[in-house]
Structures are given as structure tokens and as C-alpha cells.
Sequence to fold (420 residues):
Amino acid sequence: MNMNLLVKNIGTIVGIDESGRSRVAGKAMGEIATLENAWLLTDGTRIKDYGTMESLPGVEGYALIDAKGGWLFPSFCDSHTHIVYAGSREQEFLDKINGLSYEEIAKRGGGILNSADRLHDTPEEELYRQAMERIEEIVAMGTGLVEIKSGYGLTLEDELKILRVIRRIKETAPLEVRATFLGAHAVGRAYKGRQAEYVEHVCNDMIPAVAAERLADFVDVFCDRGFFTPEETAKIIETGARYGLRAKIHANELAVSGGVEVGVAHSALSVDHLESMGDEQIEALHGSDTMPTMLPGCAFFLGITYPPARKMIDAGLAVALASDFNPGTAPSGNMRFVTSLASIKMKMTPAEALNAATLNSACAMGESKDFGSITRGKMANFYITKPLPSLAFMPYAHQTPIIERVILKGKEYFSAKKTK
Ligand code: NIG
Ligand code: FE
Fold:
């Protein structure tokens, strides 16, 4: 049982929301509620109350943190990662420097298949150890809820293996975890040239086995040029739906792939990437609950066009941000840097970027009820920074370490001060 925690002398609480909304869209994304000179109290695991320092409650019986004018932010929600992978892929990084594209590397049998080979050769225990190092990294950088995909197995056995590692992370990590089955990330080597049969295998064998062990919350498909078609995607997400798995789709990274439309038609929780978007694709998202999710760390790393975030927000849509943490296209889970890229490269204001990386990203996991803002009754997931001159300082001074303390589910996880 955690002790109730009282944080006092908070310079500014950012991201307060008592409206009960699950997402924030369009113009409203540019606003984020704050409270200056404040305190915040937890009931052990959830946020109980907050107010200004004039109304500070008696401190007896609480674990006390003095924020000393530092700011308090809701933890980042990272709705799209591939954190469980074996080793790394710097060779492809060098290939890219020397002029090969992501698709060319994939066609030569590198890319996802390269990670699948390594995962096959790596024991579960070692995979867990490597993934937990990355988890520790993202926790220290302010992430409190993360989605993790499979998709480096690509055989029934290895997909179960990676999903079991994700389950173990779920059970042992301090942050909240959601698991996604991504068997259709690429065609497994054994099915080379037999893509239709591989899709059958995903639907008839993998999804039922994953569901039988309750290893996944969601199902995903890489719906893109050179990977899976919208028809194959529809088949897989319809099968997933029969097993209670909601869809999150990799769409329009490499081309206008039909992934957005198939996601919207099947009420997917989110369509992610969106580097290739036309006006029709933006139009297709109107009136749908599917959350368009952008992963600017991928465009940054691959040197491709960034998604048209500005256009989408101006068109009244909600958008989410996530890291895509993976060895091939985004080897970092730093959500603060993701918000910086959103501001610098996609012209999102700091408030828009923060809303996209908290409440809207929680929404992309169906979790806004419990995560994504400073709200009475929501999970006590937040971090405390040094005193900041303004909100814009966050994305502006993008490499300055500012996070001093991380509180997850009401418990202090990490304190930069303590380790000094
Ligand atoms: O989201 N695009 C597909 N999947 C990952 C990349 C995976 C990899 O290259 O290992 C992504 O970018
Ligand atoms: Fe991805």
C-alpha cells in the first residue's frame, strides 16, 4: 500500500482537466489548463485533490515532497512502441547514411526480418532484460503509460514469445503497459512469396492462440506499400475484433496506402504514422473516433516528410503523438523530444504537442478515463521538473534535463536529486 503523497510548492501544475472529455480536438488543442503556486495530494495511487498554496492541507500523515517551485506535468502516454527487440540495427543506420532507403533495406531482407532473426535467437530472459533497460529509460524521461507491440516474431512460437515478454513487463514495470499483437508486421521468412497464406496463418492460428493466452489488448497491421494491403488489413482486424482485440493500424508511412480508410471503416482506435496524407485521407478522419497518431521520431530518423499535423488540427481534428521506439525507424522513446519535433517540424504549439502526447495519446489506447491529465480520480502519474520560465521552455530547450522526480501510480520511482 503506497502512502498518500502531498506535493507542495509546485510552481505550476500543467494539464489540469476536470471536463471528463476523452480527447481534445482542433482549436481546443491549443489550450492547456494550469494552476500556479499549487499543491497536489494523492490517495496512494490516484490523484485525490489539488489547490493553491493558500489552501494547503495539514501535512501530517502524508509523505511530503517539496517541489521548490518546480512544475508538475501529467506523465506522457506513449501509444505506439516496439520496445521489445533483440540487440540493435546500426548496420542499417550506416546503410541509410550511404544512401539506401528503408524500403530498399527491407527488400534485401534486412529491417523487420533482421530483428525477427535476432529475436528468434535470443532467450526470453535476455529479451526481457534488454526491454527493461529501455523501460527504465522512458520512465526516467516521463512516460507513465506505454503501448508495446509484438511483430518481431513472425512465427506463431516467436510471436507468443515476444508477447510473453510484454506480459512480464506489464506485471513488473512501474508504468502501465498495453500489449498489441502485430503478427502482420512483415511476412515471416518461412512464408516468403506466400503472403496470402501468411495472412491466413495470422488469422487462423496466431490470433486465436494469442487470445487464448490473453496476451494482447489490441491488434495491428503494417498497412503500407510493400507490406500488407487494405484488404488483408481488413481481414486481420475483423478476425481480431471477433477475439475482442481493437485495432491500431500502421498506415501511410511509405505511401498513401488505404490504411487510414480501412482503419476508420473498422473503428480502429488509431491510425498511426501518416507521413503520406492527401486531403481525402484527412477528410476520411472527420466524424470518426479513430485517433490519428503521429510519430515524428520516425520522420526525423528516416529523413522523410513529416505528417501534416498543422493542417489536421486546423481542420478540427484531434491528433496524438507517440515515439514509435523501435530499432529500425525510431531508436528513442523520448516523448519530450517527440513534442519538440512536433513543435519544430510540424508547427504544433507547445500546448498542442503536450495535449497530443498526454490525453490524446491515452485516448489512442482507450485509456483517457484513467490517464493523460491531472484530474481528480485519475491515476497519480506525473513528473516534477525544475522551475521553468514558461511552458514553451519544455520543447524549446529540448535536451536540457529538467525532470527531477517521477511519480507513477502514486509512488516515487526516480529522483535525480537522490542519486546526486
Ligand atoms: O513503425 N513501420 C513499421 N514498423 C516500424 C519499424 C519497424 C522496424 O523497422 O523494425 C515503424 O516504423
Ligand atoms: Fe511502429
The mean pLDDT is 96. The longest strand covers residues 5-16. DSSP finds 16 helices and 16 strands in the chain. The two ends are 28 Å apart (CA to CA).
